Amino acid sequence: MKTAAAPLQAAATGGSRIELADGRVLIDGIASWWTACHGYNHPHIADAVRRQLAAMPHVMFGGLVHEPALLLADRLAALLPGDLERVFFSDSGSVSVEVAIKMAMQYWLNRGVRTRHRLLAFRGGYHGDTIATMAVCDPEEGMHSLFAGVLPQHHVVALPRDADERAAFDRFLSEQAGGLAAILVEPLVQGAGGMVFHDPGVLRHLRQAADRHGLLLILDEVFTGFGRTGTMFACEQAGIVPDIITLSKALTGGTMGLAATVARRHVFEAFWSDDPLCALMHGPTFMANPLACSAALASLELFATEDRLGQVAGIERQLALELEPCAALPGVRDVRVRGAIGVVQLDRAPADMNGLKRRLVQQGVWVRPFRDIIYLTPAFTIAARDLSHLTRAIHAVLADSSVMLTTPA
Questions:
Q1: Is pLDDT of 408 > 50?
Q2: How many CB atoms lie within 10 A of CB 40?
Q3: Which of 65, 285, 371, 396 sits at 20 to 30 Å (Cα–Cα) from 91?
Q4: CA 342 to each of CA 92, 118, 276: distance values in angstroms, whole numbers, following the listed order
């Protein structure tokens, strides 16, 4: 069994930099798992949280509401396409997807249909680490394969990218739709499953298929939401409206945990009843936490007042230009860029992943490769010179052939 490397101790953050306890400073290339879209310690978000902390850090969201949550729900509904207008707040991306799954299943139960209790998800997909969300991830993904036979059973099929896959997908739906509650997909980019891209036409095909068979369509935009793919939400590039969308990660600008599961009007109406058994039974203790809601409101204000999508477009151009030389290196299979996501895919996973990570740190960067990919998802506010430092570091490390050949001790 390989020994895990000891974690580095972080002491402070600022902008696109992480200061370690030993005094070293690293340029952050992944924005703390894609969350710190405005960079670390943005003063506008910090000021909003301080004001809320002084007024009311938390109050239960049961029988009570508060202004930060009401405002945030309104602003999310205004930003999202179509009639995505009913917002359920929770604490994390995994929980937001879990709520979406429960919402989709109960939607049918509330309508008197008891046969539609499975989901259709896709190979390469990743939706979280709770039991319910692991069950809709790629079954071969990482630790999830350890739980085979324990997890609830859903259908996981190939994403219909080409004509043959679409024909197979359509045949599958024709046979299985009667037992399905919803289709679940990460739009445009399957993130933690390998940063795998697909085009907007795939999403249009899924929307049409869901409509044809009367299914709900759930888009997991935990990773892609809030500008990461070049539009505020990835689904905008396909011109579709999902029935349910999940949001988290960059929602608060990377300051604290908050998530939202947002449903269209017709989904909400299936729960609107005098019968308490028709209610969505899910109530996180820190649901709609006022501090987190205030941080999210401040983050959305930054999107409105500063040209974040323009910055993403600039990052996309720079990543495409500066990562391309990696394609000529031995052991590199593919280089791809979409929005503020840059990916270098290797022929195989490095023999010594700890060594690869260590060499990147020695280059002065914080980049966390996994499996066979090295990727960048920087803050949208990153300086061009810092982004160049990141791309040069990746090229320099991969140019050293020993990275691929070294066997761990």
A1: no
A2: 22
A3: 371
A4: 25, 34, 47
Half-sphere exposure of 349 (CA within 13 A, CB side): 9
Q: Max CA-CA distance within the chain? A: 67
Q: In whole angstroms, how far apart are CA 170 and each of 165, 206, 216, 217, 243?
A: 9, 10, 16, 15, 20
What are the structure tokens assigned to 97, written together? 């997807």
Q: Which long-range contacts (CB under 8 A, 24 or more apart) does 44-48 make?
A: 44/298, 44/301, 44/302, 45/252, 45/253, 45/255, 45/295, 45/298, 45/299, 45/302, 46/255, 47/298, 48/294, 48/295, 48/297, 48/298
Residue 196 gets the label, from left (phi > 0), alpha (psi -120 to 50) or beta, of: beta
Chain mean pLDDT for the chain: 95
Each residue's pLDDT tens digit, 105-137:
999 999 999 999 999 999 999 999 999 999 999
Please state the rounded mean pLDDT for residues 278-303: 95
- Please state the pTM of the whole predicted model: 0.95
What are the distances in angstroms from CA 51 to CA 44, 57, 64, 320? 11, 9, 20, 41
Asked if residues 144 and 136 have their Cβ atoms less than 8 Å apart, the reply is no
Kindly state the tokens that stand for 42: 């943005």
Query: Model confidence over 161-179: pLDDT tens digits?
Result: 999 999 999 999 999 999 9
Nearest in space to 233 (alpha carbons), one of 355, 119, 81:
81
pLDDT, average across residues 249-273? 96
- Number of other residues whose CB lies within 10 A of the CB of residue 409: 8
pLDDT surpassing 50 at residue 409 = no
Q: Which helix (H) or strand (E) holds 308?
A: helix 308-323
Query: Is the pLDDT assigned to residue 351 strictly greater than 80?
Result: yes
Q: How many CB atoms lie within 10 A of CB 149?
A: 6
238, 200 in Cβ contact below 8 A? yes
Chain centroid, CA 223 distance in Å? 2
Cβ contact 158:165 at 8 Å: yes
